[in-house]
Amino acid sequence: MTMISTNETALAQTATADRHDRSAIPAGKRMLDIAVSALAILFLSPLMLATALAVKLNSPGPVFFVQTRVGLNGKTFGMIKFRSMYRDAEARRAELLAQSDRTGVCFKQKNDPRITPVGRIIRRYSIDELPQLFNVLKGEMSLVGPRPALPAEVAAYPGRALGRLKAVPGITGVWQVSGRADVSFDEMVEMDIAYAGSVSLRRDLAVLFLTIPAVLSGRGAY
């Protein structure tokens, strides 16, 4: 894995400062990640297989979408999702940036024309995120943590937002159970920095339990 080049000095300082105590997921958190993700893959495999079939039949293209994201201390990795957009989505992203429904660095559009019909359903209920359980098993992500950003987004971060990179990125987190895209970028940053400063199994378990009603409500999911 490589370090992203933009914001290089600040990221290098972050990596150096946290090299000794944040170079790996804490043992207790890692054990929880392995146990829960393995069980989730086992029990959710019928849903995942049905989703894969629906994605394949709905529009041309691969079932999975692997996208470069920024993880702990600025290291990049390939985040796995079920494909929820048309194949030319990445090429069309630049032309839609000015239409973002969310202020700040992260692009979000409620009626994104790049999303397929099946994609709208699986995004609303976060089914598209399920393949990230394999990222968790590999140790690239955790069940709970800040959502991993795109390299281009991190390149545009103000200095304080780099504090998000001090925690292992997660499938769910405080931001997700607080309204997802309805939460502003600045509010998300503060939530993630607070989480990074006080990672605990108790908080992770609380967030996991709160994730279920948050997903079912569909609030802020677009």
Between the first and last Cα atoms, what is the distance in angstroms? 29 Å
Q: Estimate the helix proportion, in percent.
A: 40-55%
In DSSP terms, counting alpha (H) and pi (I) runs of 4 or more, how many helices? 8
Q: What is the total domain count?
A: 1
Helix and strand composition category: mainly alpha
User: N-to-C SSE series?
Assistant: HHEEHHHEHEHH
Description:
The protein has 222 residues and is mostly helical. The chain has one domain. The chain is globular, with a radius of gyration of 17 Å. Helix 2 (27-58) runs antiparallel to helix 4 and helix 2 (27-58) packs antiparallel against helix 5 (132-138). It is 45% helix and 9% strand. Strands 1-2 form a two-stranded antiparallel sheet. The chain has a two-stranded parallel ribbon with strand order 3-4. A hairpin with a 5-residue loop joins strand 1 and strand 2. It contains eight helices and four strands. It starts with 7 loop residues before the first helix and ends in a 5-residue tail after the last helix. The protein has helices at 8-17, 27-58, 89-96, 117-124, 132-138, 151-155, 185-196, 201-217; strands at 64-70, 76-82, 142-144, 170-172.
